[in-house]
Each structure stands twice: as C-alpha cells, then as structure tokens.
Amino acid sequence: MIATRFMELRKRRGLMIALVLVNIGIPTIFLTVRLIAHAVAPKSYGPAGGYDIFTNLVAGVMYVFGFIVAATLGCTAGSVDLTEGMFRHLVVTGRSRLALYLARIPAGLGIVVPLVAIGFTVVCTVCVAAAPTKLYYEGAVVPAGLSRTGFLAWAGENPTYVLCDLPGPVPGNLACPNGSSGGGPIIRGGPSSGGSGQPSAAVLKAAAIENAARDYPGYAATFRSPSVPLMIDSGLWLELEAIIGFIVGLGLASLMGQRTVPVVLMIVLELILTPIFSTAVIPHVINLQRGVVGLAMAHLEPGGLPLAFGGNSRGSGVSQLVPESTAVAVCVVLAWLVGWTVLGAWRMMTRDA
Known about the structure:
65% helix
C-alpha cells in the first residue's frame, strides 16, 4: 500500500520537477554561478562557499521554500484520491480507511526527506570546500578561532589595523593607511613624544583592546566555514521543517477535500502569518502566537544560524522573537504533527464514499 502511494506521487511529473528544482536546483544553480564568477574574476567576486553563504542559504532559502514545496506535496497526497475520483473505488475494496491515510505519510516522506538531504549535502559540500582561506570580520582580515584573550592580545599587537578597519572609537589624529576612521567616533589621546600629533603607542594599544573587547561577541560568531555540529543540527532542523510541512498539508487537504485552497493557506501561513506572529508581541493573543509552529521552529533553530523571521543574528545576542521556552516549542511541534494527522485521518474515516 505504501509503495502504491509512493508511485502515485512520483508519477506527478510537474510536482516532482518543482520539488527537485526548489530543494536541489536553486541551491545548486546559485552555488555554481558563484563558483564560476569567482574562478573568472576572483578579485571582483568572493569565494562561492563559506559560513555566511551557508547560513543565508539554509535560513533564508531552504527553510522557507522547503516548507512550501513539502506542504504542496502533502496537499497533493491528501486530496489526490478525491480529485481523481478514486476514493470510492478504494473504499469498495474493503481496505481500512485509516490504513489508506497513514500509508500516505511514509510514502510522501520517502520523497521529500531524501530531496532535502541531497540539496543540503550540496550546500554543505560547496560551503566547506570553497570556503574563504581567510576570516573576514567587518571587512577586515583577522585570525580565525581566537579566544577572547587571544583576540585582545592580537588587537594590542596590531592597534592601527584594529582601529582603522574594525568598528569602534578612534583616537584623534590617527593616520589610517586607507584613510578610514574605523566607523566610530573620535576620542582624544595624548600625542606621541615625537610631537607629530599622533597618539602615543600606549593610547593606541588601550583603544584597540577596548574596541576588540566590544567586538568580540560578533567576531566569535563569525567563521570561515560551517562547523560539523552546525551542519548536522541545521540538516535535522530542515528535515523537521519539511516533515511538518508535509504532515500539515496532508491533514489540511484531507480535511478540506481539495488541494488548491490548502496550498494557498500553507503559503499564507509560512510567508505572512508566521513572520508576523513570530516577531510582533500582541498582548491579548500572545499564547495563541506561541502555538504557531513557525515560531516554535524558530526557537528550535540551531544557534549558529540567523533568525529566520527575526532579522537579527543570534550572534548579536538580541532576538526579536516572541519569547517561548524550548519545552513549549517542542510541545507545539508535536501537537501540530499529531493534531493534523488525527484530523486528516478522522475526516477520511467519516467522509461519504
């Protein structure tokens, strides 16, 4: 029965093309273009891979569109028998309606889970293999992987470079090689003993260490390439998002008995309602907001990724998400998975043949 449902979905070529294009095609095309551009003009175009490319693709593209296409597959699986007039014939055979519904879950997940895994593997491979050879933070080249003590020590040894290229206050009359001012306000320091008006070495070192201490949280969240734990966590997070999209779409389509309206509702949920309910605190309905699965998934997002609907990076330590505990987020995800499965199965069991 599962194999039959699997083949029914695979035969829908348009849907399969859309799934492959979104989960595999878009990341592959994007990374291929970057690889070619960097190979042709390396000074004009940066490396194709790296930490920033990985996080933007995962949180900005694969997360959102992966949910939508998985939901579309679920809506198709939940309504295909009704729209093609096969539901009556299946009931006449005497097969359990519950078994007919539950068979669609492993059949659909057998399609969407491998596609998400393949697309994510492509992204991980390119982002690691084609990562920058140097770490760039705020446009400056800095050593990678330093501890706080090591970062401050490096800043003290390279005060002019730190003050001119990293954000923060700059001692007055400091002559930067590139004419920049570090992007911060000017502070006054004592002139050097040579009388040139340049701040003394002690003033420069102290200012550089102070700026480095302020910049360290942002530096600590910047990497050349994604780490193995981050890639594993991100892959599992994307797979969970796709599973949720499929299960909810399956249940909603079974409940409504059609595909078009459920697909539209799932797109509205993901692109409009979830961003609003995830970031805008509405006092009288805040508990309802916490019940939105998108907000729960945002709280379960791996710490190294930018917030999908909050705009602010986790590395900044500032979150715009509606507050919610991890335990509540897990319960919300489970409630959506179980709840929509029960609703979809109940509607199939009670629908007139």
